[in-house]
Amino acid sequence: MNQRLQRLADQIQRDLAVLIRDEINDPRLTGFVTISSIKISPDLGYADIYVTIMEKSMDDAMAKDYHTESLEVLNKASGFLRTELSHLLKTRTTPRLRFHYDEVTANANYMMNLISKAVQSSEGQPSDD
């Protein structure tokens, strides 16, 4: 991605984070939405937005199936978000927004949780010295 597209992606990420937090009031959108990354097509036609959703209860909260309803809410609100984003950006066109669940970040968080549990359990057991 060239530098111009990267700057635009960074601006969209900042603006979308505020818009999702302040403007989307759908009760089906549970948890805290974090935008991991944005990839913009070279013709500015589409922006693929990768999100993770942190739930209040963490038991199996990283599974992709757990967040399908939240992703549907975001994708249905993409037209509204695009309109609001067009008022904030200084570009001639505003890309269409497509939301995807970021499995890489979710898997990394899950693995870090497993590692911390393993370390805690091994600290409680005597070593084989």
TrEMBL record:
Monomer. Binds 30S ribosomal subunits, but not 50S ribosomal subunits or 70S ribosomes. Belongs to the RbfA family. Keywords: Cytoplasm, Ribosome biogenesis. One of several proteins that assist in the late maturation steps of the functional core of the 30S ribosomal subunit. Associates with free 30S ribosomal subunits (but not with 30S subunits that are part of 70S ribosomes or polysomes). Required for efficient processing of 16S rRNA. May interact with the 5'-terminal helix region of 16S rRNA. One of its GO terms (molecular function) is ribosomal small subunit binding. Pfam families: RBFA. InterPro entries: KH_dom-like_a/b, RbfA, RbfA_dom_sf. GO terms for cellular component: cytosol. One of its GO terms (biological process) is maturation of SSU-rRNA. This is Ribosome-binding factor A. It is found in: Cytoplasm.
